[in-house]
């Protein structure tokens, strides 16, 4: 099944680009299923070209140029990374990246690509005024990355109404590092379901960024991305009822007057079994990741 998964952060650099590549690498592939492409749609400029020393002639800019002339398809603009991940890389420079994102959103090319391909889009910082806000507005699933420290979580608290478009958009939180609190408490206080916990794994992150590491078997971070990606893919597939259309940007991201900040009647279910909430236990049969497996890393589960 194809779809558009947007990955971003409210502030900071918690590993959005790494996660877009990691999720694309770990996305479950079924025979005859849609291919997966990571699209670096970060208006502040890309990293993948630099990480892998790729030619900048193929990527977001070439795709935008063709989309401008009416050819929306992304084939010809995708590069395959050494590990096998397919990526549409953004230019390093912000002005060029923002311009390309504006063309691709204005023409609807990214959304159109997601009709046949699973697009995992790195949207960078999720702000109403971001050039990538229209990607968020039309995505099927928004993944917000945050480190589970009070100052980062506090920035997400109060944003859940705009992140979920007042309950019309599916949005999950993905934590980078082990939280000091149970996941159901994190989900409850932030108001978003927690899709998983990624380990602090500088070596694994370095491998995803093309840095030599000498590791052959998938490390903790790669395993966690595989498990989280499986859960997200199921969440996409389970969306039997299409969401109602979103209002135009920037209204889609604005906090509607009179909303309380709660997700408009949606439950903030903890999607990682092993957490203590009943909602978490009901997810057990649906393939969500055992939190003990995702959490591992160097430290043991508390
Ligand atoms: N799980 C992780 N454990 C340890 N280091 C990580 C992890 N994820 C990412 N990193 C490292 O953190 C740094 C930032 O990662 P990345 O570039 O993916 O973040 P970003 O949120 O996209 O940042 P930017 O704001 O620059 O776009 C990189 O050096 C990356 O290797
Ligand atoms: Mg980035």
Describe this structure in words.
This is MinD-like ATPase involved in chromosome partitioning or flagellar assembly. It is built from 13 helices and 8 strands. It is of the alpha/beta class and 302 residues long. An 8-stranded mixed β-sheet has the order 3-4-2-5-1-6-7-8, with helices on both faces. A hairpin with a 5-residue loop joins strand 3 and strand 4. The longest helix has 18 residues. The radius of gyration is 18 Å and the shape is globular. Adenosine-5'-triphosphate (ATP) binds next to helix 1 and helix 10. The site of adenosine-5'-triphosphate has 19 residues, from helix 1 and helix 10.
Please describe the structure with a list of short key phrases separated by commas or semicolons:
302 residues, alpha/beta, Rossmann fold, globular, disordered C terminus, binds adenosine-5'-triphosphate, binds magnesium ion
- Give the spatial strand order of the biggest sheet: 3-4-2-5-1-6-7-8
- What's the alpha carbon Rg, rounded to whole Å? 18 Å
Q: What ligands are attached or bound here?
A: adenosine-5'-triphosphate, magnesium ion
User: Roughly what percent helix?
Assistant: 25-40%
Share of β-strand residues: 5-15%
What is the count of β-strands? 8
Secondary-structure-based class equals alpha/beta
| Element-level helix/strand string | EHEHHEEHHEHEHHEHEHHHH
Question: Quick one: CATH class of the domain at 3-32 and 122-295?
Answer: Alpha Beta
Please mark out the parts with pLDDT under 50 across 5 or more consecutive residues, or reply none: 251-302
In CATH, the architecture of the domain at 3-32 and 122-295 is 3-Layer(aba) Sandwich
> What does the average pLDDT come to?
83
Number of helical regions: 13
Q: What's the oligomerization state? A: single chain
**Cα separation of the termini:** 36 Å
- Shape assignment: globular
CATH topology group of the domain at 3-32 and 122-295: Rossmann fold
InterPro entries: P-loop_NTPase (IPR027417)
Protein name: MinD-like ATPase involved in chromosome partitioning or flagellar assembly
Biased composition (Polar residues): 278-294
Organism: Frankia canadensis
